Amino acid sequence: MKPTKNRHPDRLAGLKTWARINSPWVLHFNSGSCNGCDIEILATLTPRYDLERFGIKLQGSPRHADVLLCTGAVTRQARSRLLRIYSQMHEPKFVVAIGSCALSGGVFQGCYNVLGGIEKVIPVDAYVPGCPPRPEAIIDGVVKLLSSLKAPQGGDGTAAHASEMVEKLVVEHEHR
Ligand code: SF4
Asked: What pLDDT score was predicted for residue 79?
């Protein structure tokens, strides 16, 4: 039988991007944080901030995750685990460094057992500064990452819509 030729490669790629932008599954990894940033990530996942409205869902396995949320400076002990988890994720995969320590080593910079920020070990796609960053900043970082993914042709502007939602969330939170 003659193999079927894909007559609409652009549409298929657009559909994949649309699905990825609308349903990014995330994995959280602490490579040496003081737990402050981790608590903020957990707060972000609670119904108060309702990250799931963007289709963002926490996953327990790197094989099911699209986005790796990393906190803390990378310690010598955590380096191999971070590399292993990153290698187990399927392409295309994205990394968000959360907190000053994940960006540069932060307050742990220069310690004998600290290698530095996440990008010393794996490539980083988005950075969320702060010590620790607030949930709104974490949501903004993830949404900006999604916005940077190419929107499908003729798409519904989901990433732009998500940015609007974050702005609304910040305003709502300020008025509480
Ligand atoms: S950025 Fe601040 S809260 Fe986050 S791991 Fe570093 S010291 Fe802790």
From this structure: 95
pLDDT at 59 over 80: yes
- Ligand 1, atom 5, lies closest to the CA of 33
Assess if CATH 3.40.50.12280 describes domain 23-174.
yes
Atom 2 (ligand 1) nearest CA: 131
pLDDT band at 170 (very low <50, low <70, confident <90, very high): low
| Distance (Å) from CA 107 to ligand 1 centroid | 8
DSSP of 56-80, one letter per residue? -EE-S-GGG-SEEEEESPEEHHHHH
What residues line ligand 1, using a CB cutoff of 6 Å? 33-34, 36-37, 71-72, 99-101, 106-107, 131-132
pLDDT, one tens digit per residue, over 96-151 is: 999 999 999 999 999 999 999 999 999 999 999 999 999 999 998 888 888 777 55
Would you list the domain boundaries of the chain? Answer: 23-174
Average pLDDT for the chain: 83
